[in-house]
Design a protein that fits this description.
By secondary structure, the protein is an alpha+beta fold. The chain has one domain (about 30-139): Roll (Nuclear Transport Factor 2, Chain: A), CATH 3.10.450. It has 5 helices and 6 strands; from the N terminus they run αβααααβββββ. It has helices at about 1-20, 35-50, 50-55, 60-65, 70-85; strands at about 25, 90-95, 95-100, 105-115, 120-130, 135-139. Strands 1, 2, 3, 4, 5 and 6 form a 6-stranded antiparallel sheet that branches. The longest helix has 19 residues, at about 70-85. The chain is flat and about 45 Å long.
């Protein structure tokens, strides 16, 4: 019985570790951790550089395998949206900050920007969702 229990526990650990990547199912102590700013920067850089492989690392590998076409379409849409905004003349981002008004299982990084010559300003965010205690994913 003990061997069976140990085997089940080891399989659970290996299955959990197999689904973890640097950017999916990542550790954060709480929803206000600065790790969200780092992940947001990596995500936005992947989009800005059209690095689809890096962007894919933010998704559940099982979902990517099952819905590769849809996930790629979503990433391409995100790339176009970011490029549309960042291509405005004089585009400049304010320092990123972790949002304080979120639900317990959500975290967000706020990004305020402006493009003075284009007379434009706005805000966007990177949203994250808790998928297990202290483990998160891009939402």
């Amino acid at each position: 019985m003990k061997k069976l229990l140990l085997m089940v526990m080891l399989l659970t650990v290996f299955n959990t570790q197999a689904k973890e990547s640097e950017h999916f199912n990542f550790y954060a102590e709480n929803r206000f951790s600065t790790v969200f700013i780092e992940k947001c920067k990596v995500w936005r850089n992947a989009l800005q550089n059209e690095d689809v492989e890096l962007a894919l690392s933010f998704f559940d590998p099982d979902i990517v395998k099952q819905h590769q076409k849809s996930v790629n379409k979503h990433i391409q849409s995100q790339i176009r949206e970011l490029k549309r905004t960042t291509s405005l003349e004089g585009y400049h981002e304010q320092p990123l900050w972790v949002g304080k008004k979120t639900q317990p299982h959500h975290a967000s990084v706020k990004i305020d920007w402006e493009a003075k010559p284009a007379k434009a300003r706005g805000g966007t965010s990177c949203a994250f969702k808790k998928i297990s205690p202290n483990h998160w994913r891009l939402n």
